[in-house]
Amino acid sequence: MSWLELQDKTVVITGAGGGIGRALCQAFAAQGARVVALDRDAAALGTLTEELGQSAVALACDLSKGDEIEAAAARVDELGGADVLINNAGILRPGPLDSIAEADWSAMLRINLTGYLLTSQAFGRAMLARGAGAIVHVSSIAGSQPQPASGAYSASKSAILMLSRQMAQEWGPRGVRSNCVSPGLVRTPLSEAFYADPETKARREEMVPLRRIAAPEDMAEVALFLASPRASYVTGQEIVVDGGLSQSLMGLVPRPGYS
Is 233 assigned a catalytic role? Predict the structure, then answer.
């Protein structure tokens, strides 16, 4: 038996086709879990299921559409219901606050926040009925450290932290845990453009106390723990996975004799 005790657990992962989502799917499948991969990108899901084989079920699902979430949940209920939900899907529509379009602001909140609530409701029903389950929300250090010119991104990620805490309060007595993973700088296919320039990559690495940019697998390892019985007394918490970046502010303040 695996130390994490995730064998044969049904784990629903949203945003499964992206960099962190793919790493999450691979990590849970490696632990013997039954992975249900949700993404609106059907092509990405096809590639993922080819990699994971029979250990994964792929469901095309647009988290901006409540009916598609409910349809996916009904399919998972046919499999016995979700044991674990990983809320990972998210979008970024950048823009300064003085000019960002209302449509872009609303779209980010719809996916990044309301989508987390709707999937938690839909897949959490089986957990609440069973009296056991774990939900892990992927937030960001941008939820605590405001990220400029990013529209609703920081606001949505901050709201996820509070949503998770409220869920922990309300659902804890019914056996369901809720926690957050907050990534820092992560190298994924979507962020690869930032690291294509060696100088920019080196400057970013220099900002991180551990002197490296995270891989998606770094996030997956923490999510595995939070989803597993090893974290059975952990709820309402945020684990920041950023190599110490968010703790570096005072190190930027000039002091005599310190560089």
Answer: no
